[in-house]
Amino acid sequence: MRLHPIRLRLSLLSALLSALLPAAAQPTDSTDFIRPPWLREGDTVAIVAPAGKLSERVDTARIRQKFGEWGLQVRFGTCQNPDKKAYFAAPDSVRAEELQRAIDDPSVKAVIACRGGYGSVRLLPRLRLDALRRHPKWIVGFSDITTLHLALRRLGIESIHGPMPGGFRFEEEKTGASRKTGSARTTPSDRSRATAEPKERRSESCKTTGLTARGQGAGRPHAAEPEDDSSESLREALFGEVHSIAAEPHPLNSPGEARGRLAGGNLTVICAANGTPEALQADTPTILLIEEIGESAYRIDRMMQSLARCGVLERLRGVVVGHFTRTAGCERFGVEEPEALLDAYLRPLGIPVAYGFPVGHQEPNQALYLGHEVRLEVGAEGARLDFGDDR
Predict the structure, then answer these.
(1) Residue 106, preceding bond cis, omega within 30 degrees?
(2) Rg (Cα) of the chain, in Å, rounded?
(3) How far apart are CA 150 and CA 369, in angstroms?
(4) Are 178 and 191 in contact (CB under 8 A)?
(5) Which of 13, 90, 210, 254 is positioned for an S-S bond with 181, CB 3.0–4.6 A?
(6) Is the torsion defined by CA of 328, 329, 331, 333 positive or negative?
(7) Is there a contact between 237 and 160 (Cβ–Cβ < 8 Å)?
(8) Residue 380 burial by Cβ neighbours in a 10 Å radius (0-12, 13-18, 19+)
(9) What is the pLDDT of residues 252-309, one digit of tens each?
(10) Residues 223, 246: Cα–Cα separation, whole Å
(11) Please, which residues have CB within 8 angstroms of residue 322's CB and are 6 or more apart in sequence?
C-alpha cells in the first residue's frame, strides 16, 4: 500500500524522534539491566555535589584519607559555592557539567554524591546518563540522589543507595554522638540536615519503634555498635561484598517471600517523580524501598495516596521500609508512629512488608544495590533482603 506523502513524512518524523529520545523517557521500566564493574584497589572515584552546597564542616582531607584506606584514589569536584546564603553547590549548568564530566571520564570507576539536600532533578535535562549504558560505573548516594537512581532504573543500570561522604562519622564525632532510640545515633550530619529543614519539618517527632537492625556484608553480620557501620557498608558495596541485609522482627511486618528488582529510596522524591519520565512504573516485578526524614504525617499519607492512586502500590511484589526519621504530627493524624500510617496502605496489598531496615537518614545507613534482582523474606525471626550469589 502506498502512503500519502504527508503520512510518510509524519511516520519518518515519529521514527526519528523515537530514536533520539533518551531511554529514561521511555514509558516502561527496562528489564535489561547492566551492573557496573566492582571496584578494585587503585581505582579512582569522583566525589561530586549535584545538589545542595557542602557544609564548611565537611573535611575533604579526612574523606580522602578514608577512601585511601580502602585503596581508592579520590577526585573531588570543584562545586563549592562561597555564598553562605546560597542553597545549591553551584549553578545548575556547572553542577551538571561536573557530574557529566565524571560520568564520561574513563578513569573514574564510581561517581559518589558528597551530600543530598535538593537540586538533582534540576540537572536531568542537561545530563546524558545513557553514556552509562556504554561505559557503566556506579552512581552512589541517597535522599535527593533518589532522582538519579530513578533515572538510572529507567535506563536499566544498577546503582548504589548508600551513605555519602559528607555524612561520614569520624572518631571524635563517634565518641560525641548521643544515642537515639534503639541502635540509631544522632550524628553531626543528622543535626546539619535537621537545621536545613523548614521549621514545620522540625517539630515534635512521632514515636518510633527503634528496633535494632543488622547488615551482612561479605557474609559477616555486623555488631550492634559498629566502628562506623555505614561508611564500611559503602566500601563493601563498592567492592561487591554486600550479599544480604537483615532486620530484627517488627510488630507490623507482613510475612512472606517475594522476588523482584529493588527500586526506590526517599519517599518524597519518588512521589515527586510521578508524571515525569523518571516515574517509578513497577511494571516488572519490583521490591520497593522507602525512607523519609522530617515530614509531617499528613504529607506521608498524601504521598502514599499518590502511589496508590497512580497504581504503583498494587503492582509491587514487596516493600522494605527504612528509617522514617523525625516524623511530625502523628498524634493529630491518629497514629503513634509513621509505620502505623504506612501499614494502613501496605498490609491490604497482601505482599511481604518489612519494617525497621537499616537504611535512611540515621545510623545505621546500609548501602544496597538498586536495580538488582533481590529476594525478600519476612518471617517470625525477622526480615532478610538477599542480593543473590551471582556476585
Answers:
(1) no
(2) 21
(3) 13
(4) no
(5) 210
(6) negative
(7) yes
(8) exposed
(9) 999 999 999 999 999 999 999 999 999 999 999 999 999 999 999 999 999 999 999 9
(10) 13
(11) 289, 290, 291, 357, 358, 359, 360
Strands (E), the chain: 44-48, 73-76, 108-113, 138-141, 159-161, 178-179, 185-186, 213-217, 220-221, 242-247, 256-266, 286-293, 318-325, 353-354, 368-370, 373-379, 382-386
Q: Cell 557498608 maps to which residue?
A: 233
Give me 56's grid cell.
564548611
Q: What is the dihedral of CA 293, 294, 299, 305, to 10 degrees?
A: 10
Q: Show the cell assigned to 179.
A: 544515642
pTM of the predicted model as reported, rounded to 2 decimal places: 0.83
Is 3 buried (19+), middle (13-18) or exposed (0-12) by CB count in 10 A? exposed
Taking alpha carbons only, the member of 86, 135, 82, 87 closest to residue 111 is: 135
Of 312, 308, 316, 310, the closest CA to residue 352 belongs to 316
Mapped onto helix, strand or coil, the DSSP state of residue 20 is helix
Is 354 exposed, middle or buried (CB count within 10 Å of its CB: 0-12, 13-18, 19+)? buried
* 179: pLDDT strictly greater than 70: no
**Do residues 47 and 112 lie in contact, with contact meaning Cβ atoms separated by under 8 Å?**
yes
4, 69, 33: which is closest to 239 by C-alpha? Answer: 69
Q: Percentages helix, strand, coil for the chain, rounded to the nearest 5?
A: 35, 25, 40
Cell digits of residue 289: 524501598
- Compute the distance between CA of residue 90 and CA of residue 92 in angstroms, rounded to an integer: 6
Q: What is the residue whose three cell numbers read 509524519?
A: 10
